[in-house]
Amino acid sequence: MKGCLKPEAAKAKSDSGNFLSDIISISDFTRAYIEKALDEAGRMEKASRESKAKMLVNTIVASLFFEPSTRTRLSFETAAQNLGARVIGFADAGATSTQKGESLSDTIHMVERYADIIVMRHFIEGAARRAAEVSRVPVINAGDGSNQHPSQTLVDLYTIRKSFGKIDGIRIVMAGDLKYGRTVHSLMYALSRFSGVTVYLVSPESLRMPRHIIEDTKATLRIHETSNLEKFLPEADILYATRIQKERFPDEIEYRKVKNAYIVTPQVLAKGKRGLKVMHPLPRVNEVSPEVDETGAALYFEQAGNGIPVREALLFLMLAGKMKGGSA
Ligand code: CP
């Protein structure tokens, strides 16, 4: 589809200077891009509300969510408003002309005329890449099916760096739905940009991490696989729990077999190393018991809160180069 871009469209997209013009896959990020985003997020978190309020004034952010979301949509929209941008969009795809049969490409061709950047979640894997190919304004993938969720991964990395002071050398258990979980897919690729990271993959046999992701990352990650949640907890710094995603299963009987495979409780955490932290991209169902919220191990609400500075940073880095006086 790149060949379909008009020359002026291609030019507009290259104006992002020294940052990515679209955020589609975490695989597009070098370590330097990741660190630039995390450093900028750190500055956003420290900056006063007043000092940020005009950073993206006269900018319009389109928020297109074709799949349910609480955190990603609201934190992107809050981040945009914190920087002075206006937000257009919908949260219910059922109320759009998609219902009348409009193609994704046509929708993007409309929205690129209304907004300066598009944040999109879609249920089809690869939809964000396709949108970026036809759009002359930047596109951020806010989750495409079971494929990728790159802004969540930057939130995860920011949370890890803030809590542990580093990402290199971290030891992380990823537990639950590793087959369909886009957050853990993206996190594997991102962690492979760092050194000395050990990943313990814990899942039922039917929900193992896709082989191609292990092949793509095994040169730099130390990877262990098991179905036993407690096996590697004494060695891990982080337990990254994920929801078993009912909506991704082609067969509900298969879902029922694994839906309660792992439940993290204070008793489970007691088997872990001192200082073990629990992360989760949320929403949770029952895989982390509410009693964990009251322990010092729970990092997941703070993690969700970090969505604001990280998404402020992404919007700023992608748009500020185009703004008068922008310095991204
Ligand atoms: N973490 C995450 O993507 O949450 P939402 O589905 O609520 O956006």
Automatic annotation (TrEMBL):
Binding residues annotated for carbamoyl phosphate, in chain numbering: R71, T72, R121, H149, Q152, L282, P283
Domain Aspartate/ornithine carbamoyltransferase carbamoyl-P binding residues, every copy: 22-161
Pathway assigned to this chain's UniProt record: Pyrimidine metabolism; UMP biosynthesis via de novo pathway; (S)-dihydroorotate from bicarbonate: step 2/3
InterPro entries noted in UniProt: Asp/Orn_carbamoyltranf_P-bd, Asp/Orn_carbamoylTrfase, Asp/Orn_carbamoylTrfase_sf, Asp_carbamoyltransf, Asp_carbamoyltransf_Asp/Orn-bd
Keyword Cytoplasm: no
Catalyses which reaction(s): carbamoyl phosphate + L-aspartate = N-carbamoyl-L-aspartate + phosphate + H(+)
GO function terms (MF aspect): amino acid binding; aspartate carbamoyltransferase activity
Domain Aspartate/ornithine carbamoyltransferase Asp/Orn-binding per the UniProt entry, residue ranges: 168-317
Family per record: Belongs to the aspartate/ornithine carbamoyltransferase superfamily. ATCase family.
Purpose: Catalyzes the condensation of carbamoyl phosphate and aspartate to form carbamoyl aspartate and inorganic phosphate, the committed step in the de novo pyrimidine nucleotide biosynthesis pathway.
Quaternary assembly: Heterooligomer of catalytic and regulatory chains.
Name of the protein in its database record: Aspartate carbamoyltransferase
